[in-house]
Write a structure and sequence with these properties.
Structural class: mainly beta
Helix content: under 10%
Distance between the termini: 11 Å
Largest sheet: 7 strands, antiparallel
Order of helices and strands: EEHEEEEEEE
Length: 102
C-alpha cells in the first residue's frame, strides 16, 4: 500500500522538526491535516504522524471516520541511502510494523 504525503515543517538548529502533514487520501477526504514531530540526525530520520481523529478501514476495506474518537499515531524510522538517493525504513502503525522499501 502506498500513500502520498507532504510535510510542511519548521526545522530548528538541532534538526528537530514539527508541523503539519497533507496526506493525499486522508486530507482530501476529510479536509484535515495530520500533525508531525520528528528529528533528523545525519542520514537518520524519525518522526511520528498523528491523526486528529479515528480514521481506519473495516474488514471490507471501507473507510471509517469518527471525529469523536482519538486518532492513532504512525511512526517512521529510516535512513537515507546516498547512492540510491532514497529513504529506507519502517512504518509502525499501532502494534504492526511495515517494512518500507520504495
Amino acid at each position: 500500500m502506498s500513500i502520498e504525503f507532504e510535510m510542511d515543517v519548521t526545522l530548528d538548529e538541532k534538526m528537530v522538526f514539527s508541523g503539519k502533514v497533507f496526506e493525499s487520501e486522508f486530507s482530501e477526504l476529510t479536509g484535515e491535516n495530520l500533525s508531525v514531530k520528528g528529528f533528523i540526525d545525519e542520514d537518520h530520520i524519525s518522526f511520528v504522524k498523528v491523526y486528529p481523529f479515528l480514521y481506519d478501514y473495516d474488514e471490507h476495506g471501507n473507510t471509517m471516520i469518527d471525529r469523536e474518537q482519538k486518532g492513532h499515531e504512525v511512526i517512521y524510522d529510516g535512513y537515507f541511502d546516498l547512492e540510491l538517493k532514497k529513504w529506507f525504513g519502517e512504518w509502525e502503525v499501532e502494534g504492526e510494523t511495515i517494512i518500507f522499501e520504495p
